[in-house]
């Protein structure tokens, strides 16, 4: 078991006072068998009225409503948690799903729904053909397929951190030969869906005290990865950026069909078009 403390601070600066619209905040980690949340504190400056709800995926979503105008906005969360995910997990895959391809049960297929459908256009089946190329034989070990697909993501594109918002389309990542962890996660999820898997995006934090993994700034940072549903094993955590399985160093905050549904902070301001000056994000993940 690993005890962690996470501090996530986002600061917006403007060259004049502006009004802030409601902000949607996804900063509270998802509690599970592998993650025990000890404490969570959320603060804003200027002070906001905060209400909580759960979205369709069961993520905790806060809505912050602001009053006075200001020339800066600070949103900060402080978390203490215990992470007990295994470093070398064993996946108890159901007999009918050990080999790929397999069929989900009717109820599973219905419930997975849009998580099995590609969200980006795939001209000429470029992505689908790229994904199918890693399947070596008509009956292949399912876990091996997922491992090979993950490895092929980082083999096909170089990791490159970027601060701008949004994500590249999967074919853009393949054509350009580079991407961030967000781009790698989207590429993997879309490729897995093209192979018939139910898959979803996960956003959260990466804990890397040795500073050896891709996507790390300091001992930890925000990160994006994937989960694939396999009968028997359930949701299998896969980080294509670091070619890893399991979540021993990953702290999930939100799962979603599309990355845009899992942004940590989303909101706007009312003011002059050139009022915005600077965005600074600080993340500390300490053991």
TrEMBL record:
Coiled coil: none
Residue span, Transglutaminase-like domain: 173-242
Gene3D superfamilies named in the record: 3.10.620.30
Pfam families hit by this protein: Bact_transglu_N, Transglut_core
Descriptive protein name: Transglutaminase family protein
Native source organism of the sequence: Phenylobacterium montanum
């Amino acid at each position: 078991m690993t005890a962690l403390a996470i501090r996530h601070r986002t600061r917006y600066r403007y060259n004049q006072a502006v009004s802030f619209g409601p902000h949607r905040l996804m900063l509270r980690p998802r509690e599970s068998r592998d993650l025990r949340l000890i404490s969570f504190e959320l603060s804003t400056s200027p002070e906001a009225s905060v209400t909580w709800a759960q979205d369709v995926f069961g993520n905790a979503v806060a809505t912050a409503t602001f009053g006075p105008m200001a020339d800066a906005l600070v949103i900060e969360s402080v978390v203490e948690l215990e992470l007990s995910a295994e470093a070398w997990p064993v996946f108890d895959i159901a007999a009918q799903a050990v080999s790929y391809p397999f069929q989900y049960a009717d109820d599973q297929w219905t419930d997975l729904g849009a998580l099995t459908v590609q969200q980006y256009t795939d001209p000429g089946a470029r992505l689908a053909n790229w994904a199918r190329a890693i399947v070596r034989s008509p009956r292949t070990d399912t876990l091996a397929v997922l491992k090979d697909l993950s490895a092929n993501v980082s083999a096909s594109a170089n990791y490159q951190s970027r601060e701008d918002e949004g994500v590249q389309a999967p074919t853009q990542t393949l054509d350009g030969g580079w991407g961030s962890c967000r781009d790698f996660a989207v590429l993997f999820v879309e490729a897995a869906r093209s192979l018939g898997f139910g898959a979803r995006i996960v956003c959260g934090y990466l804990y890397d005290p040795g500073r050896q993994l891709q996507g790390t700034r300091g001992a930890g940072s925000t990160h994006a990865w994937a989960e694939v549903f396999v009968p028997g094993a359930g949701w299998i955590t896969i980080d294509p950026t670091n070619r890893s399985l399991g979540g021993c160093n990953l702290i999930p905050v939100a799962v979603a069909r599309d990355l845009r549904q899992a942004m940590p902070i989303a909101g706007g301001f009312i003011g002059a078009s050139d009022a915005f000056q600077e965005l600074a994000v600080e993340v500390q993940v300490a053991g």
